[in-house]
Amino acid sequence: MDIDFNSIDMKQFSPNDFIKSFKEGYEAIPNHQGDQAAKVQVVDSIKAHKFNPEEVLSFLCDKMGNPSIKLSDEEWKAITKKATKRDDLAGKCLEVCAAVLKGNKKVSYEDLFSTVVSLCGGNPKHLLQELYLNNVGWNKVADSLVKTEVKTEETRIEDTKKVKKTSIKTPKADPRCKTIILIKEGVKKEWASYRECEKEIGVGHGIISQLVSGKLKKANGWCLWKEEVKTPVTSHKRHRSKAVRQYGVDKEGNKVDRIWSSITEASKATGISHSGISKTVTGTYQSAGGYKWEKTAEAAA
After folding, report:
1. 292-295 sheet: strands from edge to edge
2. For an engineered disulfide with 207, which of 156, 203, 223, 285 has Cβ 3.0 to 4.6 Å away?
3. What is the pLDDT of residues 45-93, one digit of tens each?
4. What angle do CA 130, 136, 140 make, to 5 degrees?
5. Residues pairing with 215 in the sheet
6. What are the two backbone dihedrals, phi and then psi, of residue 146, each rounded to the nearest 5 degrees?
């Protein structure tokens, strides 16, 4: 890709910034001449943001349908053949080594490719990805990038909010970890869990659960222990008054001050909507049906 790794202070790769930069440069040129021009545009976008070329190539390979380059030896042979056509040190070395090792099955083309490129100071993964994208066609790569939507700052903020809203589900407690008390022939015993109980009294898995649910009455002579005297539960629920007071002046100018046993009764008798009276009582509305309404502790007449 003709990029000197040592000449740039590489920054963290951002797909969004890379695509945005590529689009701006690509759209500024009205007519692109072939794959080489598209490839140059990609290189310019890398240089503009000082991105690591390897990270960009990995991103492009993923985008073009090659997320993990796993090649057969025959495919490596084809890749090596393409690499030998490059007019550089790695290409010439590969050409010589491939000729020497022709027909030698002990050395794979993958090992040959990786070893020679590394010894020549290159990056095997980088070169492999570049050769793959050469094969795909840089015009196709460019078209794919142009069609990719660039995320704005507002979109990023929205995505962050969605991640924060994701609820974390709390795992449900295993009911079989609860303590259990059984009684047999007047002897009462407690276990820390259903599992311990089943193991000690010699019954199968799930038998204690069936005992608790009422599906079984006994298990090996053991039954649920229950207190003979149960303490009655006293309700602490407050009885709130439902009565409402209606007051104001009717259409004839007569003063109205009446108490109804409930909002429902008042609504039916006056024809004023239930929700209107309710919202006036709670303070949402000022009045309903031309009258003021409020809660009252007084009994309806």
Report:
1. 255-260, 244-249, 292-295
2. 203
3. 788 777 777 788 778 877 777 645 566 777 777 877 777 777 676 776 7
4. 110
5. none
6. -65, -35
| Tokens, residue 17 | 């910034």
The tokens describing 284, both together, are 């949402």
Q: How far apart are CA 194 and CA 212, in angstroms?
A: 10
Mean pLDDT of the chain: 75
**Long-range residue pairs from 72-79, CB within 8 A, at least 24 positions apart, any chain:** 73/108, 73/109, 73/110, 76/108, 76/109, 76/110, 76/112, 76/113, 77/109, 79/109, 79/113, 79/128, 79/131
Q: Are 266 and 275 in contact (CB under 8 A)?
A: no
CA distances from 164 to 152, 153, 155, 158, 254 (A): 19, 17, 14, 10, 60
Could you give the maximum distance between any two Cα atoms of the chain, in Å? 117
Name 201's Cβ contacts closer than 8 Å, sequence gap at least 6.
182, 219, 220, 222
pLDDT digits (tens, 9 = 90+) for 228-267: 333 444 455 554 558 999 999 888 888 889 999 999 999 9
Q: How far apart are the first and last CA of the chain?
A: 94
